Amino acid sequence: MKVVITGGAGRQALSAIYDLVETPDVEKILLVDIKEDALQIRKELVKSPKIETKVIDLRDTKALAAAMEDYDVVINGSSHVFNMDVMNACIESKTNYTDFGGLYHWAVEQLTRDEDFRKAGITGIVGSGSAPGIVNVLTKYATDRLDTVEDILILDAIINRSAKGYGFVPPYALNTIIEEFTMNNYEFIDGKHVELPPFSGKMTVDFPEPYGTLNLYNMIHSEVATMPITYKDRGIKNVAFKLALPTLFEERLRFLIENGLGSEEKINVKGVEVSPRDFLLEVFETKPGAKTGTPDDMKLLRVIVTGTKNGKKCTYQVETDLHHHPWGLSNGHFSVGFPGAITAKMLGRGDVKEKGFFTGEAVIDTDIYFRELEKRGVEVYASVVEQV
């Protein structure tokens, strides 16, 4: 199996790279990025003969397609704004595709390429990180055991016990977090998508220790867009995604955003035009391979699905508690990149038979996926309440 990772020099891609390097049936990994120096740093860091690098602008469809032509699958590990660009190249090169997520609007647009992928004889899966990604497969585990599916609630709780003093440590891609904090979000309520302002839908949950009591808020996320499509014929009424970030990080990010540092509108600083957001990203995004101390962050992913089975109302709760730091990486980066590698391997091995463009909850085999999670010590727990 041969795998391409676009955005291969970025932080989110690193755990996917490590996992693929350690996978025996992966023979070659091509890292594609626009930054040649960052690619070299990444190659020297990982030190594997499987790795090759190539500098390509992801908007150059012909160059990217030519590079991917002999590969089985590509993971887009760059920003979601390039998802469509990489997909266009996949259609041309006939290469299977997945990515780490596309928020809401991007995922909707990506699903319109289903027929194009089908005609090319390839498979694409949108959103294969942790959320979206793991949570979609957790949802499928529950819905596979129900006749009807009415309500889906996804909870993503993150804490970081390694963040000390006045440090500012993003749990995953900072640009994505800023968009989640500043863009209107959506809930699927009584069969309709409802647009809501940032930090709506507050929910307080008493999680087990060490998480404790956390406040979760609606965030713009692709699951709310895709699951009503997947389950439209099974009675779906309500879908919501709610996120809790580490409290200190949330407070500091709110301060920065509310004082204009999340803006993309350029300002003049001593004769140089720069956007505040670009400045923020340059200052706080960890450079490839940089160390930020011993990680102690963790994430609890919980999916609550209500429907019916044999005429009786049933509620499934399926969750996984991620406190894993393989290869010395933070859990935030591990829990995004590693699941992406799982989906890529399933595509490369032919474990997903359908051709076209899909969401994980539509086509991923939960048994295969959960076995892959277990290889890195990630366990899934499920409970069910049956009501007459």
What does this 3D model show about the protein?
The structure is a single chain. This protein is α/β, with parallel strands linked by helices. 34% of the residues lie in helices and 28% in strands. It has 14 helices and 18 strands. The protein has helices at 14-21, 36-46, 61-68, 83-93, 105-111, 114-120, 134-143, 174-182, 222-230, 247-258, 276-284, 331-349, 360-363, 366-374; strands at residues 2-6, 28-33, 51-55, 73-76, 96-99, 123-126, 148-160, 185-189, 192-196, 203-206, 213-218, 238-244, 267-269, 272-274, 297-309, 312-322, 356-359, 381-387. Helix 4 links the parallel strand 4 and strand 5 (96-99). Helix 1 packs across helix 12 (331-349), helix 3 (61-68) packs across helix 4 and helix 12 crosses helix 14. The longest helix is centred in the C-terminal third of the chain and has 19 residues, at 331-349. Mean pLDDT is 92; it is low at 286-291.
Q: Outline of this structure?
A:
34% of the residues lie in helices and 28% in strands. The chain has helices at residues 14-21, 36-46, 61-68, 83-93, 105-111, 114-120, 134-143, 174-182, 222-230, 247-258, 276-284, 331-349, 360-363, 366-374, and strands spanning 2-6, 28-33, 51-55, 73-76, 96-99, 123-126, 148-160, 185-189, 192-196, 203-206, 213-218, 238-244, 267-269, 272-274, 297-309, 312-322, 356-359, 381-387.
